[in-house]
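2 proteins. here.
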Amino acid sequence: MTVKEMALPWQHGGAFCHTMDIPMTLVLASLPSWLQAFAAIVALFIAVWGTLRADKAMRRRDRLQARCIATAIYPDILSIEVGLGRVRGVLKQLVSISAAHVGQHYMADLNMAQIEIPSMLTRNVDNLYLLGEQAGPTCLQLVSIVLQYNDLVQSAAAQLADKAKGEWTNLLHALEGHLKAIDILVGEAQQELAAVHDAQALGKLKS
């Protein structure tokens, strides 16, 4: 690698000096050792500064994305809370009639006791880790528990075909444990999402 000197308007014998090719190794070797060390330190500082700046920009991007996700899925958490109340009403009604009726007539009714996971929450499942060490795992666990509960409802509904009067009450009571867990996670998710984003702004969504 060489360094070309520009043709300078220094006249020599009535003409400009010719451009000379100087090897880069000779240029570096001609620098004083202290200047070489200084140049290396400056280069290292620039590299470290660039890395820190990129990390800061990435962290800022992740915080903004986390706030956007928190705002987007907060109404879905409230929707699950509403669905939880509806499901408990359905199960309460089925328990009240289970002693006097055979189960096969209420398979469709029990399937209605499933809890729908709203679309925004479903689409952001892979990004929930951005919400942090608290809100992210809580929301993921909430989605997992709701899916498990819905599978149990489908399984219980399929078993109703063979259940006589009073024999399917225990199937309904077995679902209550999952409903309690969902209720707890919904409350925790609301609090932790509020911590990710502005609590006042999220409060407006609930009102």
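next one coming up
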Amino acid sequence: MSAKNKDAQGRWRSKTVAFRVSPEEDALIEAKVRMSGLTKQDYITRRLTDQSVVVQGNPRVFRGLQTEMRRIAEELKNMEAGAGMDPDLMDRIGFLVSILDGMRTESDWRETDPHGRAGRKEKANG
């Protein structure tokens, strides 16, 4: 039996929700979870309850983005010339681009925060 836990509002998470997906859908969900830096439970809960998925820069997010960029690059290398782009690959690229577009450079931080504090939240629409 798993440990009891509470959500951010202090509610007990005592219900289990399960559903089936195809291997392709699973790969897409896993990629988006990795890039978001959230747990799969938190990512799916936020998406299903129409809450925004907010990506906060940290080592876990960095590794997820790095891993996903490598996978995308490998798929693009293996793609035949003139072949159509896989819709799932396009979706993953779009999600990755939305995260990267929301990121700010170190100089952006200095312009808005004289203390150079990190921790800006990035919104990903996916």
